[in-house]
Amino acid sequence: MANLLKTHIENLLKTDKRLIDENNEIKGSLIRELANKLDEKLIELLLNDEKARNSFFLKINEVYVFKHNDFKFFLDENKIDNSYTQYENRIGLALGSKMLNENQDVVLNFPYKDCVLEGGQSTEEGMDTYFEYNEEKAEYEEKQAKRKEIFFNEVLARDEIDRLFEPKAFTNIKKYSQKGEETPTGFTRDENGDIKDNLIIKGNNLLALYSLKERFSGQVKLIYIDPPYNTGGDSFNYNDSFNKSSWLTFMKNRLNVAKILLHKNGCIFIQIDYIEFANLKLLCDEVFGLENFIQIISIKTATPAGFKVVNPGPVNVTEFILMYTKEKKSFNFKKGYVEAPYQKDYKYYVTNINDVCKDWVISDVKTKALELLGFASEIDLRKQYGKDIADTILDKQIEQFVMQNPNKVFATYGPHKPSGVLKELIVKSKESPNSIIYHNREGNSPFILKGGRLFAFYDKKLKKIDGKLVSSQLLTDFWSDLSWDTLSFEGNVTLKNGKKPERLLKRIIEFYSDENDIILDYHLGSGTTAAVAHKMKNQYIGIEQLDYGDNDSIVRLKNVVNNDSTGISKAVNWKGGGSFIYFELAKNNEQAKDLILGCNNYQELLSLFDVLYEEFFLHYNVKIKEFKEKISKEVTFINLPLLRQKEMFCKMLDLNQMYVNVSEMEDTRYKLSASDISLSKDFYQIKD
User: Fold this and answer.
1) CA angle 654, 660, 664 (to 5 degrees)
2) Which of 90, 329, 381, 610 is most buried, most CB within 10 Å of its CB?
C-alpha cells in the first residue's frame, strides 16, 4: 500500500510543472519549501486529490487542516527526490540540500556582455556595494558590507530572474525591400499564425532569444553561430581569474534557449578555434546530449605564410565546427558532394560502349588524349614543349576528354567482401580473365567485370554543383577547399577578424536544411548567415548587439535586396528581391548606459547624475547618495581616467532593467510610440 501511495503522490506532484526539473524528476527540496510556506497551489493540488486529502489533511468542523509535517515526513520516509536517477546527471553547485537551479535565493549578475553568472547570495545577508579609495594603489576599490536593514520572508531573486527573461518590447521597427524603407503595419503570417518575415534584431542576444521563445519555440531548423573565441583579443574581455568560466556561462545561457528554439529535426553549428574547443565540446555534450553529437568539422582557414610562421610549434591554419542535432533519431541526413579534381585512376575508356560488352575495345585515356593532340607519344609532346609544359597540356587534355566522355571512361576496383550474385560473378570473371562479363540489374546499374575486378564509370562521379556539372566527391569532415582570401569584397562590408565566406554558409544551409526553413544566427556580425539565407530563399533571424556602422548587417542585407553580385550570387543566380524587418529591443537602462558611455568629460558625466537618478533604475545594492554627494566629488575620483569613471557610473545601473518588458511597454515613462506598441503586440499576438 505504501508503494502504491508513493507512486500516486509522485504522479500527482508531477502534474505541477513547478515541481519537476528538465529530466522530469521531482524537486523534493522545493516541495518542502512550498509546504513550509503553505503554498496555495500545492495545498490545492493535494486537497483536490482523494488519496492525498485522506493522508495529509485533518477535517475539523467541515474545514480541512493541512498536516504539513506529516507530508514532509512522507517525502523523507519514501525518499521522494532521493533516487539515483535524480543525481546521475546533476553534478554541480548546491546550497544546503538544494541544487542552485532549485534555489530561489540566487541573484543573477552580468559581469561582461550580459553573462548570467549563478552565485549564492542570500537576501538575508543584505550586502551593500560601495567604493573606497586605496592610497597605496591610487585606485578606488569596490567593497561590500552588510546592510543595516534585514529583509525577512522576501525572495527577490526569483522575481529578478523572471523579469530578466520576460519578453521585451520593440522599437525603431522598419521594413526594407526594393521599394526602400517603410514602417510595416504588421508581421506577415501563414495560415497557422507563424511569422514568415525575415527578422534582424538589434540588442542583447540572450534577451532577444528569450523574446523569440514566445513565437519560435521548436520552429528553427538550423542555427549557425560564430561566437567570440575568448582569445583575449576578441570581443570577450572579461579579464580576471574567472575568464573561462565566464565565457562558458555566457555560452551555456544562450545555448540553453537556442535548444528550445530548435525544431525536433533541427541542428546547430558552432564555429570555434583551438583555445576553447575542448571546453565547448564538453559544454555542448551537456546541453544537447552526447547522443545528439554528429561530428567535428575541421576547416582550413589560412595558409602557413607571413607572421604566423614565427609562432612556436606547427602553424595554426585550422578552425572547427561542432555539429549537434536536437534529436538525432528525427534528423534527415543528406549526402553532400563537393567539386573535386579529375581522379587519375579513371584511366581506361571503351570505344563501343553501347554494344553491351560485345567486342568492346578498351583503350588508355592518356593514349587517346595524345592522339587528339596529334602526338604518337609523350616523348614527342615533350620534345616540342618541354617536360613541365607538356605535362600540363596533357593533364588538361585528359581531363577535357574524360568530362566529354564520362560514360565511356572507367576505373576498376576489387569490391570489399562481395556476396551473392557478385561473388559468383567474380569467380566466373577470374576463370576467364580476358572476357568482359555484363550482368544487368533491374533498377540499378549493371555489374561489369574483367579479371575479377568491377568497372566504375566516371559519369557516376559527376554532380551539378553551383549550376554546372563537375567532378565530385563526397563531403568529408575536413573542408580545405573554401577560399578565405577575398572576403573583404563579399557583401561590400568588412568585419575584421570575424567575417566568414558566403560559400561556407551556403554549404551548411544547402546540405543541412531545405528551402524556406528558418535559419538563426544570434552572433550575426556583418550578416553573412542572413545574406546567404536570403539568397537561398530561406527564412532567417539574425541577432546582433554591436553596431558596425557602414559594415553593419543592415547595410549588407540592403545590398542583397538590391541585387548584390558578390559571394554566392552567381552560383545561385541571385537577382535581388525579398525583404526583411529590422527592429531593436526597446532600451531602458541600456539607454542610460549609452548616455554614460557617450560623455566626453567628467563634467558631462557628473551633470548626468540627476537624469540617471530620476529617469532610470539604479541598483538597490549600491549606495547612490554617498556616491553622488561624496565619492564623485573627491579629487581622487576626478583625477581618474574617464573610462574608469564611466565604469563606476555603470555599476549603479540595475542590470535586470536594461530593456523594456512587453508587459510594461505602455507605461508613459518609456516613451514608446503608438506604432512600436502596436507592432510589439502584433509580434506576440497580444489582443487589446
Assistant:
1) 115
2) 381
Residue 560 pLDDT > 50 = yes
- 548 and 439 in a single domain? The answer is no
Instruction: Dig out the grid coordinates for 195 from the structure.
Output: 511569422
**pTM score, two decimals?**
0.71
- Shared-domain flag, residues 527 and 559: yes
Same domain, 210 and 316: yes
Contacts of 154-158 with C-beta under 8 Å, sequence gap 24+, read 154/123, 155/104, 155/105, 155/123, 156/107, 156/123, 157/104, 157/105, 157/106, 157/107, 157/108, 157/123, 158/104
d(CA 264, CA 218): 7
Does an H or E element contain 34, and which?
helix 28-36
**259 contacts: CB under 8 Å, gap ≥ 6:** 268, 287, 288, 326
pLDDT of 675 over the 90 cut? yes
DSSP-derived secondary structure for 569-638: TTTTT------EEEEEEPBSHHHHHHHHHT--SHHHHHHTHHHHHHHS-B-TTB-HHHHHHTGGGSHHHH
Q: Are residues 604 and 562 in the same domain?
A: no
Among 269, 290, 185, 177, residue whose Cα is nearest residue 220:
269
Could you tell me if 275 and 316 lie in one domain?
yes
Burial class, 456, CB count within 10 angstroms (exposed 0-12 / middle 13-18 / buried 19+): middle
601 lies in the same domain as 652:
yes
Helices in 461-578 by DSSP H: which ranges? 502-512, 528-535, 553-561
Query: How many domains would you assign to the chain?
Result: 4
Closest CA to 53 of 72, 40, 67, 41: 67
Which one-letter amino acid corresponds to residue 440?
Answer: N
Is residue 170 included in any domain, yes or no? no
Q: What is the CB-side half-sphere exposure of residue 122 using CA atoms within 13 A?
A: 8
pLDDT score of 159 more than 80: no
Q: Which residue has the cell 560488352?
A: 357
Q: State whether residue 395 is helix, strand or coil.
A: helix
What is the per-residue DSSP string for 232-291?
Answer: SSSS----STTHHHHHHHHHHHHHHHHHHHEEEEEEEEEEE-HHHHHHHHHHHHHHH-GG
Task: Tell me the pairing of strands 518-521 and 220-225.
Answer: parallel
Among the listed residues 114, 203, 197, the one whose alpha carbon sits nearest the alpha carbon of residue 586: 203
Looking at the fold, whether 429 and 531 belong to one and the same domain comes out as no
Number of H helices, E strands in the chain: 24, 28
Domain encompassing residue 499: 198-336+479-578
pLDDT at residue 626 in the model: 77
Q: How many residues does the chain have?
A: 688
363: region left, alpha or beta (phi > 0 left; psi from -120 to 50 alpha) = beta
Q: Considering only 52-56, 112-116, 164-168, 494-498, which range has the smallest mean pLDDT?
A: 112-116
> Is the same domain home to 328 and 227?
yes
